[in-house]
Amino acid sequence: MSWSGINGKGYTLSKMKYHSRMFLVTSLGKGFGAGGSAIVCPNEEIREKILFLGVPLMFTSPVEPATLGAIIGSAKIHLDKEIVEKQQQHELLMNYFYTNAKLLDLPIVNYTHTPIALVATGTPEMTNEIGDTLYKNKIHATGAIYPAVPYHNSGVRIMITLYQTINNIDFLLDVLHKAFKTAYKKRDLNNEKILRHFKLGTK
User: Which domains does the chain show, CATH number per domain?
Assistant: First the structure.
């Protein structure tokens, strides 16, 4: 949602047409910037069935007023040309991050330009060390570690958002580059040894 596609409809719908038997379920958090989720139904009959028969199968609560206000505000942006400007600005930041990460030879798992990049660390211990360095430099990132992923497929998830600037990204890349140089030297590691577990290559 939001970061790609006309009116922020997302990558999937930007590549295919909506089918009458398809259900689209999407988050209104993350890129949309609010909370909750949305289900796009093929017709009114299906919508009512979900509404009346689905309640016993789920546990949730109504969206609180503040979140509802954020949803409405974000929806207005998505229906306005402002979404195009935000997508273009976001694309520039993503391009800058991935281009310079490649120049620094960081172990990015996949260089496809998406807002979330996984920097491979190999093991949870390595993830904790890199993550601790980021934290000490006041950079927020989340780790992907076992058992959420296979043991040797751990990594640090870097999120590119519109709240960042080119200077922020430069600082992030510099901290990551130095952290990996230190960690590699300590463990006699390199990109190839870590990325081989992902079976995706180094670029």
Answer: 6-80 (no CATH), 84-195 (3.90.1150.10)
Give burial (CB, 10 Å; 0-12/13-18/19+) of 139. Answer: middle
* Residue 38 near residue 25 (C-beta atoms within 8 A): yes
Q: Which H, E and C letters describe 93-153, residue by residue?
A: HHHHHHHHHHHCCCCECCCCCCCEEEEEEECHHHHHHHHHHHHHCCCCCEEECCCCCCHHH
38-52, 66-80, 174-188: range with lowest mean pLDDT: 38-52
pLDDT, tens only, 52-71:
888 777 777 778 899 999 99
Q: Is the peptide bond before 107 cis (omega within 30 degrees of 0)?
A: no
Query: 129 phi and psi, to 5 degrees?
Result: -70, -45
pLDDT (tens digit per residue) in 134-157: 999 999 999 999 999 999 999 999
The predicted pLDDT at position 200 comes to 63
pTM for this prediction = 0.83
What is the distance, to the nearest Å, from the Cα of residue 157 to the centroid of all Cα atoms in its chain? 8
Greatest Cα-to-Cα distance within the chain, rounded to the nearest angstrom:
62
End-to-end Cα distance, the chain: 26
Edge to edge, the sheet with strand 154-159 lists: 116-122, 154-159, 142-144
Assess contact for 155 and 116: CB atoms under 8 A.
no
